[in-house]
Design goal:
Structural class: alpha+beta
CATH topology of the largest domain: Cathepsin B, Chain A
Strand content: 15-25%
Number of strands: 25
Helix content: 10-25%
Family: Belongs to the peptidase C78 family.
Organism: Genlisea aurea
Protein name: Ufm1-specific protease
Keywords: Hydrolase, Protease, Thiol protease, Ubl conjugation pathway
Radius of gyration: 29 Å
Pfam families: Peptidase_C78, UfSP2_N
Largest sheet: 7 strands, antiparallel
CATH class of the largest domain: Alpha Beta
Distance between the termini: 33 Å
Shape: globular
Length: about 650
């Protein structure tokens, strides 16, 4: 058993069933992802297979599939074999219902965690069986490997196969009855599949970032496609000994050929992408100009209800680069399109009063996941409406994600942007800027012996004096610290609000009644109290304010600050006298009391040069009293520490 996923033990604190996800392109006993089973019947070990299959079909890219199940339980007196049989039975049934490739040699994994044992459920027992055997015929596997570089194993020879397709589905039904509309929907998507396999359809296949020099995009026609949907038996070990296979072009043929061994980072940056474009070429046989075509969608029988579904499909599939392009289209892309059309069926039927449901697919890469997942949102609901919040909360539970931070909002989605230069990243999360980001990465250690380092969680942008050609020297340090804090909330997707200017910060305080109108456009200082007001207004985040009577007492708050970075992880503003700093972390030895503060200094007034910032000490560890006896925090000044709280939202 090879465990590649980082969320494998997400059931360690609860009982239930989780699905084990693998790929026919990898080792048959490699677990890439786990998904919690949410839809159950009488008990947490009896899944509602119909509901589970509908949700997982739309969530997973083709090329990944259910290869087993794990049960975590706290029941005494039942033999382990009973839970293994339950897990394997559930996995077999779900595979059949979703329509994954099923043959006698398919390996099914069953795993059990006993939460009553000394291991607390952290050491599951694994068993395997083949589909040709009975459910109670399985063998234990003692050799379990937790892979150190799972991204390398999945993506070094893997690629994404991607397709976008705007589509219109006219649904004719005899009534508003959901069954009638559902039948009409099934007929409509069956006609779509027929079109996708029509002899005259064309598929243009090229690399996402442009076809390499000397190579041409590949065009396939419907008549060339293999009509079998299932992946080849043992797809993870293609045999190219057959001459016809050698002559067939594979996904690797459209990428740059190189023998250079390069370090592998993440699939977002390094994975190759095959782009498939679909062309409905109804006039392919004509040599001359053709007239425009009008298509007729006749209703079957008496039609009283018309519902038009306009939808832009975006499907992703996973394959290794030795897969034939014909198979990539016929056995991955076309089934993926049908999966996505079937996954939106329930959305269409939920509210038949809507003439045009506003459905849109989004692609996400959740924490510790090795591949993207697809989520379809109804844009007729605002992102903060309860319907959307509950959908996201359910997804967080299924994916094993924390339920106190937004990870599946629109702003979290990855966007595929074709670029000509392979050195450019073809995925982006937020519009980039020239502002430095995460400048503390790679700085020297603090020098605290035996200390525990607690740092900011997530990314931020560094705002400081004289940025954007605006001279705020001598008065704008707290404004800049606030901009850095708001950038953290933006980059963690808690808000889409822009970084406010000094004037906009002042205007917000006036609108809240904290300042007079003459304050707007002034060069007056602000402090922790004002920052808390603006954060509440612009971001919706509350703050804790810690008062310290003098600079000498700031180190006494190190334990409290360490707890803040462990639990909240937000940047802290420290204001004292006429100076303000941004605090990114602490290094604290609880036994000796020795501590250091990771300071990001907004008083820097130079260019956007990270090396210059670190070398000049504008970002670095500071002790309350350095080796020369100099106090960093002023002894005769009081300090306010602003500790922004992470909103408890999804």
């Amino acid at each position: 058993i090879r465990i590649l996923c980082g969320n494998f033990a997400m059931l360690k604190n609860s009982v239930g069933l989780q699905w084990l996800i693998g790929s026919p392109f990898l080792s048959p006993m490699a677990i890439v992802t786990t998904l919690r089973c949410l839809r159950t019947l009488d008990d947490p070990f009896s899944p509602n297979l119909q509901m589970e299959s509908e949700e997982i079909r739309g969530l997973l890219p083709r090329g990944f599939e259910v290869i087993g199940a794990l049960i975590a339980h706290d029941i005494d007196g039942l033999k382990e074999e009973k839970f293994v049989a339950l897990a394997m039975s559930a996995a077999r049934s779900l595979r059949k219902m979703i329509g994954f490739c099923y043959n006698e040699d398919t390996v099914i994994i069953g795993a059990v965690m006993d939460r009553n044992t000394a291991n607390g459920g952290l050491d599951p027992h694994f068993f395997v069986s083949r589909t040709s055997k009975k459910i109670n015929h399985f063998v234990k596997v003692d050799d379990v490997v937790y892979v150190d570089q799972p991204e390398m194993e999945v993506w070094k020879s893997g690629c994404i196969v991607r397709c976008e397709l705007p589509i219109m589905l006219p649904l004719f039904s005899a009534s508003d009855d959901p069954k009638d509309v559902g039948d009409a929907y099934e007929q409509a998507i069956e006609s779509v599949e027929q079109k996708l396999r029509h002899p005259q359809i064309s598929y243009l296949i090229e690399a996402q970032n442009g076809t390499p020099s000397g190579s041409q995009p590949v065009i396939l026609h419907g008549v060339e496609l293999n009509h079998l949907e299932e992946l080849p038996k043992n797809a993870f070990s293609y045999d190219f000994s057959d001459e016809s296979l050698k002559q067939s072009r594979t996904c690797s043929s459209i990428f740059h050929e190189t023998n250079e061994l390069k370090p592998y980072g993440s699939w977002e940056k390094d994975a190759d992408i095959v782009l498939v474009s679909i062309m409905f070429n109804s006039s392919r046989s004509g040599l001359g100009p053709a007239a425009p075509l009008a298509e007729c969608y006749p209703a079957n029988g008496e039609a009283k209800k018309l519902l038009v579904v306009n939808y832009k499909l975006e499907v992703l599939s996973y394959a290794t680069k030795d897969v034939q392009l014909i198979d990539a289209v016929s056995k991955l892309i076309i089934p993926a399109i049908m999966d996505q059309l079937r996954s939106i069926k329930s959305n269409v039927l939920q509210d038949l009063s809507k003439k045009h449901p506003q459905l849109q697919p989004y692609q996400f890469v959740p924490l510790e996941y090795l591949h993207p997942i697809t989520v379809i949102y109804d844009l007729s609901h605002e992102e903060t409406e309860i319907e959307q919040v509950e959908i996201r909360r359910s997804l967080h539970l299924r994916l094993g994600l924390p339920i106190d931070r937004p990870l599946l909002r629109f702003a979290n989605a990855i966007h595929f942007s074709p670029v000509k230069d392979k050195s450019m990243v073809c995925f982006f999360f937020l519009a980039g800027s020239c502002v430095l980001k995460d400048v503390h990465h790679g700085i020297p250690s603090s020098g605290v012996v035996g200390g525990k380092t607690c740092l900011i969680q997530g990314s931020y942008e560094y705002y400081h004096y004289l940025q954007d050609g605006f001279d705020d020297s001598g008065w704008g340090c707290a404004y800049r610290s606030l901009q850095t804090i708001i950038s953290w909330f933006r980059l963690q997707q808690y808000t889409c609000v822009g970084i406010p200017t000094h004037r906009e910060i002042q205007q917000s305080l006036v609108e809240m009644g904290d300042k007079e109108t003459s304050f707007v456009g002034s060069r007056e200082w602000i402090g922790a109290i004002e920052l808390s007001f603006v954060l509440e207004k612009l971001v919706g985040a509350s703050s804790r304010i810690v008062n310290v009577r003098s600079g000498d007492e700031v180190p006494e708050k190190c334990g409290e600050l360490a707890l803040h970075f462990q639990t909240q992880g937000t940047p802290v503003m420290i204001g004292g006298g006429v100076l303000a700093y941004t605090l990114l972390g602490v290094d604290y030895n609880e036994g000796t009391g020795d501590c250091a503060f990771l300071i990001l200094d907004p008083h820097y007034g130079g260019g956007e040069d990270a090396k210059k910032v670190v070398k000049g000490g504008w970002c670095g560890w500071k002790k309350g009293v350095d080796a020369k006896g100099k106090h960093f925090f002023l002894q005769d000044k009081f300090y306010n520490l602003l500790l922004p709280q992470r909103p408890n939202v999804v």
